[in-house]
Predict the structure.
Amino acid sequence: MEERTLVLIKPDAIEKDVWFEIIQIYLNEGLNVCKARILRMNKSLAAEFYKEHEWRSYFQELVRHMSSGPIVALIISGENAIDRVRELNGATTPAEAKEGTVRRLYGEPDSGPKNAVHGSDSKENAEREIMIIFE
């Protein structure tokens, strides 16, 4: 089924200048970039975006990281895009991600939020996150 999902290339990946390589991974798998935008989240926007995690111990660190520098936001579409992007991204913790995944290649192994990318985890969250970032 054709779906849309959101990917955020995080400040750590932008700082390493690997954002184009990350986009290429999605394109090489037959996914499409429908929209792209470069922005810098302020703490308020980052807190709104990650609101579902506000009770978790890492929430403040995540908000600080996401507002620490520019990000590249992408709307990606394709057949089963949500699951495919999540598989390409790999496990949240880069050290636990499979070889060849975005987080294993570009994330920082021992750092929670510095895992290179965010990808929507469901159709509902994809729609909500796209609204926050693009509309």
